[in-house]
Amino acid sequence: MLFSYRCDGCSRHIRGVCAHCKQVMLQHDLPSVPGVLAAVRYENTARQLVHGLKFHNHRGIAALFGEVMVERLRSDLEMPNVVTWAPTSKQRAHKRGHDQAELIARAVSLQLGVPCRQLLRRTSSTSQTGQSRSTRLVGPTFVARACANVGRVLLIDDVVTTGSTLGRAATALREAGAIHVTCAAFAATPAPSERR
After folding, report:
1. Considering the entire predicted model, what is its pTM?
2. Quick one: which of 21, 42, 74, 180 has the most CB atoms within 10 Å?
3. Contact at 8 Å (CB) between 72 and 38?
């Protein structure tokens, strides 16, 4: 059953996914992040929606993120054999009651019609949120399950700033035997020169 709630992006009362906010996000060009496919810029509506998912437990927004990612990125994606995510720390997932990257990855896998599997374990508990660029570039560390039979992996995160989290996660997957890893995020933080 879908309950009505106030949309984090536009404050309208909705059930499920806000079509208005989806249209607003689709109006802008794709952000450019080296080595990462990103669907929207992490500002305004997209930022508010991400905060709704992360901090207000509005899990239904993950379905919108999956739709937007597949719609915006499909032409640049080589169809994966499996979708996975860069996990947040256990402490953050426990505090929030979910891992937002997992919810988005599961929504993307549903849209693509391919399986979603947990292939990574985070081995560091340091949060990237609020850290300086130099600290972010160090990034968290990951260990991957054996991926020799996995083939092409689509690796998902919610927001990318420097790309270090996805880069380290992708390295762990390749070292575990993944043939090809594509990194994708729902949103990308604009560079200082791109901010409006």
Report:
1. 0.84
2. 21
3. no
